[in-house]
Amino acid sequence: MLDDYKNNKFYNYAKNLKKYFHAYIFEVDDIETSYPLILAFIKMIICPNHYTNNKSCLDCNICHLIDENYYEDLKVIETTDKIIKKEQITKLQQELSLKSSNNTNQVYVIKE
Fold this sequence. Notes:
By secondary structure, the chain is of the alpha/beta class. It has four helices and three strands, in the order αβααβαβ. Strand 2 (74-78), helix 4 and strand 3 (106-111) form a beta-alpha-beta unit. It starts with 8 loop residues before the first helix and ends with a strand. The relative contact order is 0.21.
């Protein structure tokens, strides 16, 4: 849960981000440390039961889909040898211009 990361610099910033944007793009270099924090943030902004320590969603279907990388409004871009292909960027630009499938925030994560 996002509240597990209160000592992280991103935490206070993330708590206010939900209010301002319809889409988010994260570039993650340190998969072991950063990706769980990003997933906690994604759950906080998308889970209808407000995924925080104060109000747990009790492992809802949406959070399960996010964990399994099957949620429609979460796209993870895997790089090849730390290179993002032009086709991946073009597809990302096209997807950003579309409305959310579930009427929630869209989140894109570029790994490494």
